[in-house]
Amino acid sequence: MSETLEANTAQTTTQEIEEVIKGLEEYRERIINEVQEHAKKVKIPKAKVKAKLEQHPELSKIDQALNKLNSAIQQPKA
Fold first, then answer.
1. Spatial contact of 29 and 19, defined as CB atoms under 8 Å apart
2. Angstrom distance (rounded) from CA 41 to CA 33
3. Residue 44 — φ and ψ, nearest 5°?
4. pTM over 0.70
5. Looking at residue 74, what is its pLDDT?
6. What residues contact residue 77 under an 8 Å CB cut-off, 6+ apart?
C-alpha cells in the first residue's frame, strides 16, 4: 500500500513540475513577444532587441528556474 502511495506521490510531483515548466515557458514566450512588439512600434533594431532580451532580468530568473526544474525531472529516482 505504501509503495502505491509513494508511486502516486512521485507521479503527481512530476506532473506538477511539468505544469510549472509549461507555465514558465509560456510566460517566457509572452515576455519575448511583448518586447518584440514594442520594439517594432518604436523601430528598435533587432540586434538591440536581442541584446536586451539576453540581459532581461525576468528572463534570466525564468531560465534558471527552468534549468532547475528540468534537472529535477531528469534525475533518476533512487
1. no
2. 12
3. -85, 135
4. yes
5. 84
6. 10
Residues 5-43 pLDDT 10s: 555 556 668 889 999 999 999 999 999 999 999 999 999
Backbone angles phi, psi at 45, to 5 degrees: -60, 145
CA dihedral 5, 6, 7, 8 (to 10 degrees): 50
Taking all residues of the chain, what is their mean pLDDT, rounded to a whole number? 86
| The three grid cell numbers given for residue 41, joined into one nine-digit string | 512600434
Amino acid at 25: E
Which ranges in 1-78 belong to alpha helices (H)? 2-41, 46-55, 57-74
C-alpha cell at 63: 531560465
CA nearest 17: which of 75, 66, 55? 66
